[in-house]
């Protein structure tokens, strides 16, 4: 029985097709050439505007009676700001995003012809990205289904009206059945648009920043080919070494471009996730919003997902440095050794993904933020004990 081999170009095309489909649901398929704002994009923008207007009027109307409602209403503000940043960044950089997609498609086509070992590492990269997409999709799916089921359960079995979001429509009485259903329908629309928008933005991040592991694996293959050629005194040695140097330069340039494209998205994602976690934990302590338990799952995932990807890139940088040192330089001629010195010097200063251009995007940074959140949470407990 023959085993059917999947071409890497087909695997990557499947990834891109999935990302473009999900992004198109919120009118943000920015990886397409000549992208234009469409009716779906306008509807999403209207949902965002309604969220801010209705949330502001709701907070203003109840703030004098219950100031903690401001914290409750601010829980989802972080996700809304993340969605806005992803939408604006995507629309303003559609040429760079679509250009990078075409560039990666060409890369897969070129290296697909270089042999089974290259096909294997490219398919493995696509599989890793697929697993990440499924994991993130399950998290957003659990939040969507969980909130909708919780709202329905509380209404039909306990006759208690709870809300998916934290705003009311001016002039609509939520005490009536029609008013409550209308408010819940608008909440559901905004919540779904927000989840699909955040998910779509995360998918582009996962695909583009999931490729450095592929660059690492291809470098390992290139170094192996060079060492074999050098051992056999093959005249292809110089061209293989130049190919490795160009590959390292391309990897560095690719990371720098990703850093530029996702600069504001990453910064907003990390900062607002931390603030949202603090507010949501406070609301959980107060016990005012049952959906807080589901929402904090999204906030924590948003924080650690991006930081884990950043740590993977740091690991790739270290592997690049180590693999370049694995080149059997003693089997190269003098001219080739001089070229090796240049690339080794360059590899000592790798390009990193940074938060706000200052902090490295890494799990260590996420842990530092978590420690800060824990400190603030301890202060909250003390504040609540004093009130009681």
Automatic annotation (TrEMBL):
Recorded superkingdom: Eukaryota
Name of the gene encoding the protein in the UniProt record: LOC105226509
Membrane topology classification: Multi-pass membrane protein
Matching Pfam families: 7tm_6
Organism phylogeny: Eukaryota, Metazoa, Ecdysozoa, Arthropoda, Hexapoda
Species assigned in the record: Bactrocera dorsalis (Oriental fruit fly)
Gene Ontology molecular functions: odorant binding; olfactory receptor activity
PANTHER family given in the database record: ODORANT RECEPTOR, ODORANT RECEPTOR 19A-RELATED
Protein name as catalogued: Odorant receptor
Family to which this protein belongs: Belongs to the insect chemoreceptor superfamily. Heteromeric odorant receptor channel (TC 1.A.69) family.
Location in or out of the cell: Cell membrane
GO cellular component: plasma membrane
